[in-house]
Amino acid sequence: MTVRITEDEDPLVGSLAPETRVWASHADEVKEVPEGFDRTATSDVCGVEAMSDTDRDLYGVQWHPEVAHTERGDEVFENFLDICE
Fold first, then answer.
1. pTM for this predicted structure
2. How many independent structural domains does the chain possess?
3. How many angstroms separate the CA atoms of 36 and 83, rounded?
4. What CATH number is given to the structural domain containing 54?
5. pLDDT tens across 6-44, in order?
6. Which structural domain, as residue segments, surrounds residue 16?
7. Which of 30, 44, 49, 82 has the highest count of CB atoms within 10 angstroms of its CB?
């Protein structure tokens, strides 16, 4: 599936292409962004594909960055390591 990055300044997913192919294996879905979070990616399948609360360094994605079918998945992990440092 294709996700659309909605926040190009986001430290976790902002460096990805505006439309990025990813792999998701489930039908779970975040329906509403929790208080304090910003939606950082969306798709036709799920309205909240990624979100972040940069003030508290909390991040989440609804896809599998660790699998080969996800374009630039390694980049998500590299960005996460940068956040942790």
1. 0.91
2. 1
3. 18
4. 3.40.50.880
5. 999 999 999 999 999 999 876 788 889 999 999 999 999
6. 2-84
7. 49
Find all residues with CB under 8 Å of 63, minimum gap 6, and list them. Answer: 1, 3, 22, 23, 24, 49, 70
CA dist., res. 71 & res. 14, Å (int)? 14
Q: For 45-54, how does the pLDDT look when each residue is reduced to its tens digit (9 = 90+)?
A: 889 999 999 9
Residues in contact with 10: Cβ distance below 8 Å, sequence separation at least 6, in sequence order: 38, 40, 50, 52, 54
Q: How confident is the model at residue 2 (pLDDT cuts 50, 70, 90)?
A: very high
C-alpha to C-alpha distance for 41 and 14, rounded to whole angstroms: 9
> pLDDT at residue 63 above 90?
yes
